[in-house]
Amino acid sequence: MQTEHIKALFFKYKEQGLSHRYITNKHIEPLLDNMVNKLQIETIGHSVLNNPIYGVKIGNGDKRILMWSQMHGNESTTTKALFDLLNTLLSDEPDVTHILSSCTLYIIPILSPDGANAYTRINANQIDLNRDAQDLTQPESKVLRNVFKAFKPHFCYNLHGQRTIFSAGNVNKPATVSFLAPAQDEACTITPNRKIAMEVIAVMNAALQEVIPNQVGVYDDAFNINCVGDTFQSENVPTILFEAGHYADDYARDETRSFIYMAYMASLDYISKNEVTGVHYESYLEIPENEKLFFDTIIKNAKIGDVITDVGILYQEKLIENKIHFIPKVDKIENLEAYFAHKTIQANSLEVLSFERELLKVDYENVFVIMNNEKISLLPK
């Protein structure tokens, strides 16, 4: 399937009922209700706070693909793209019917509904579910494990979101989408199982390079058996980590959502049409590894006290009245020549003060600073 065609399908079937970063059961339940006569929807368990966890099954093919999103409740971009995908697969588009005839998808849209409500990485017991794959101490972890055992997937899609700090290698390009074929042993051996995951990632990367060139990265594959991806990979099920990252001026992650959708469609099209053996894995190894080289804002050549230096600012995501707000926070005051910024402010050696006209310090939070007696906004455009 051509990338341009996939892009057109996205705009045609984008789910208009989901936007921005705060996505909870309350947002997806009406959408699931509208689909109840078209696919199999079930409550597969409950969270710590007794919120339902939903499972969605679509397709009747032999190739089984398990997809779960919002294991971390504040990582919602992949969830939005899942509903764009479902809208597409439920359409009468002749170009997508082969996916449903070749594949069966089992989708958990929000694995951590409590974390989604609170907009946190952790669940209501303050546990990171992506470190609970072995101990299975949490009800949400047990739900995923039970689905994995019952569905017996041939592929797993572990869907996440990443911070704005990542670059796609040592370049001034954000890692808008990142992937990983997790290790399945301490030696990080490139096993036949991992090669299959790598081959699928290579296909997605090729498609994404057409729309976001040099903005795709991969993560370090250091092995941690407590992580879900490493656990499933170690059990010989090809597992792919997806990470939705930053695109220029897209703090709502509604542009990145389209690229995640394209990755979904490109990979499902490929899997449905091919027996993936891992023989075409090598181009995966050419994808640059993510580095932490970005700030949301850098104020260059600012006078702080008696020193001319740079100020690096990162946004803190805060849930206020059911909306995500981005609060600028000073992270570093030092020479930041080796770093990049999504927004750059040139101070030209002018004094930069806090909004209270005090000396700017690390950990200072405010949406403004004072420069040349003017208020300068630190917020995204």
UniProtKB/TrEMBL annotation:
Query: Does the record carry Magnesium as a key word?
Result: no
Highest rank taxon of the organism: Bacteria
**Active-site residue list:** 286 (proton donor/acceptor)
Q: Which residues form the Peptidase M14 domain?
A: 14-312
User: What SUPFAM superfamilies does the database record attribute to this sequence?
Assistant: Zn-dependent exopeptidases
Known InterPro entries for this protein? Answer: Peptidase_M14 (IPR000834)
Which cofactor names does the annotation list?
Zn(2+)
| Pfam families, per the entry | Peptidase_M14
Q: What keywords are annotated for this sequence in UniProt?
A: Hydrolase, Metalloprotease, Protease, Zinc
Q: Which residues cross the membrane?
A: none
Q: Does the keyword Metal-binding apply?
A: no
- Read off the PANTHER family from this record: PROTEASE FAMILY M14 CARBOXYPEPTIDASE A,B, SLL0236 PROTEIN
Q: Which family does it belong to?
A: Belongs to the peptidase M14 family.
What is the protein's given name? Answer: Peptidase M14
